[in-house]
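This week, look over our next protein:
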Amino acid sequence: MTEGVDVLVVGGGPVGLAAAVRARAAGHDVLVVDKRAAVLDGGLDKACGEGLLPGALDAVRELGADPPGHPLAGISYRTADGTRHAEHPFGAGPGRGVRRTALHAALHARAVDVGAHVRHATVRELHQDARGVEVVLAGTRGATTRVRARWVLGCDGLHSTVRRLAGLDGAPYRTAASRYGLRTHYRVAPWSDLVEVHWSAHAEAYVTPVAPDLVGVAVLAPRGAAPADGVDLLARFPELAARLAGAPVEGRVLGAGPLRRRARRRTAGRVRLVGDASGYVDALTGEGVRVGLAQAQAAVDHLDDAAGYERAWARATRDYRLLTTGLLAWASSPARGAIVPLAAAVPPLYAAVVERLAR
């Protein structure tokens, strides 16, 4: 027996849930599936910076969700030893540091409230014709279900199954260019209401207050430079290590990567790739949630127009791709050490970058 649905969303993270909310608002029946069991109780976690900049916070609220967290007043770029820094407050008002589990719970509740169905299942096969897409799902006990959808939205992240099954995987980046991320929470009161980005010779540490007694630290580094666990996570950031000395670790260290991904296109027939599944540059600028939510809106707006979605995707991601690619190239060059000194020496330039990120 084949189940029917208008929109099948594969991937129950924030972008997939946002797509589900948007699709319901457009009058479609929606089923969200995710291979992780935590999708059912709103507890999905991810290795990420956990900062919602002002534009991202506005976009989440527009969906009808308002997750708890800690106010973020701006961004500070800092040398690893803390001797040089540049700071700028957001002109549009505060953002919010939000634990990924809290963001997921808020968007999960909203998606269910508007009538989306959420299921724990793994996509095994995908076949499509001119009128729809048939997907084979494997449940928790190995039983398979066939779902016939008018459209499939692949919101299933960097290692997207939908991208692979739809034949949309792009050529891989060379291994040396790969970057990886690790995220750890420390049980300590935040010492600042800024997102701090600490720059060492080969890695960055992103410090985000997410609660009155909790900060998240996400480290991004090239392959081979990222530690395998949290033991030496802070060794290359002396100022940060001093701040966190003696603070207990909350939960386990999570990792992600390689971060950079290509997709040949964002569309194949009635399949749309959304969020990280559609191609990803790097987490360096912290814009992933905002850009992903914009893509979710664009995908739902262009379900019947593949070319229109490709154009809308390009518009929604253009600034992110240009800024992140440029900053990543600089950060990977011998001039990496000049980033913080330049930001400190030319405040208007740094302010312009921060305001662009905050939109």
Q: What stands out?
A: The longest strand covers residues 144-154.
